[in-house]
Amino acid sequence: MANPSTLAGINKTPDISEEESNETKRTPFGTRYLNDPGKVFEHNAWDNMTWTEEQISDAQRKIAENSQTLIDDNKQEVYENDADKFWDEFYSKHQNRFFKDRHWLFKEFPELSTQPLSAESDGIQDAASGEQEKTENESSRKQRGEERNQTTSGAEEGTEVAYSGDSINTKSFPGSHCTRRYLEVGCGVGNTVFPILQTNNDPDLFVYGCDFSPVAIDLVKSNPDYDLSRCYGFVFDITDPEAELPFPEGSLDMIILIFVLSAVHPDKMQYAITRLASFLKPGGMILLRDYGKYDLAQLRFKPGRCLSENFYVRGDGTRVYFFTQDELKNMFTVAGLKEEQNLIDRRLQVNRGRQITMYRVWIQCKYRKPDKPAT
User: Fold this and answer.
1) Hey, which family's this protein in (predicted)?
2) Where are the beta strands (DSSP E) in 236-310?
């Protein structure tokens, strides 16, 4: 194992450091284990690192040091009330240049790229019937596309469509003509939304992306791949009980939370998860990947940046929380969801040029809404 005391060199801003390297020939992630410490710089990352007692003690010491003094209540109130403004400033500064498309997410969440198998793909149809089915499918897809465009005609560029709870027409809303619907919360500039649309060609899939930064949503809508027949971006704050969503409860198959719950005030996390769970269909899932306690991003904070236990503010005013598995398990369970995955990803990232090792800790969860009991 590389020297566990080398804990430096990570970017201050969130999420960029988990991107995969550009190596063309490599052992796939999830199977790359460091058995020989002398080979640590042969790859850019190593999976499932086992921490030593010394390393754990060192992490605990660093956290104790950087959380001794909490930011005063007045400043904490500013960070809470103006959270959207800080993220607006972040996206105004970086535009769409900061985050890379998260193509790695299909390795972590293969559910997002899964498509229903057709009879033709199963080899059941012969060539003639397969060609006929292809023609019928193309015609059907065209008709569905026209119907979707009619449904979303009021949501064209530059037009805000307002929805309020009971006024949502459950038969006509963005994506209502699709049978599968995904929502990414905290979609940023679309670096998960667009890879999903590019990878999953299911004509009955519709992807929503929401963020409480209007600047981020404007960037989503300016993307050349933004197609109202396949996706819909909107401004939404998951902690605001007055904010409405543009689709009815029980209408989503997947909700994606990628490094976003950690930006929410801890006191509001349970409400956010419980409300989001109400929009899942029976059998639908929430997929989460976020920062774990002892992650290098937590250890590198200097004193004076701590808001509360495991909750910090960055230099740009954006905030981040570092989770334990038990915390997430409890919140999802209270929301009525069943656990399918809750794991810690301890990864060693390597800067081979600078000969630096960086220990990352992420938590990945999959929680499913139970099917309705048989009547």
Assistant:
1) Belongs to the methyltransferase superfamily. METL family.
2) 252-258, 280-291, 306-308
Cβ–Cβ under 8 Å, residues 206 and 183: no
- Residue 207 is inside which H or E element, if any? strand 205-211
Long-range contacts of 1-5 (CB under 8 A, 24+ apart): 1/34, 1/37, 1/40, 1/49, 1/50, 1/52, 1/348, 2/34, 2/37, 2/40, 2/348, 2/350, 2/357, 3/357, 4/51, 4/52, 4/54, 4/55, 4/58, 4/359, 5/58
Mind listing the domains of the chain with CATH numbers? 37-111+173-369 (3.40.50.150)
Q: Measure the CA–CA gap between 85 and 214, rounded to whole angstroms.
A: 9
Q: What is the pLDDT of residues 164-212, one digit of tens each?
A: 334 444 568 999 989 999 999 999 899 899 999 988 889 999 999 999 8
Q: What is the pLDDT of residues 215-274, one digit of tens each?
A: 999 999 999 999 999 999 999 999 999 999 999 999 999 999 999 999 999 999 999 999
pTM of the model: 0.76
| Paired tokens of 27 | 């052992």
Spatial separation of the C-alpha atoms in residues 147 and 177, rounded to whole Å:
7
Helix (H, G, I), strand (E, B) or coil at 72: coil
Return the H-helix or E-strand segment holding 347: strand 338-351
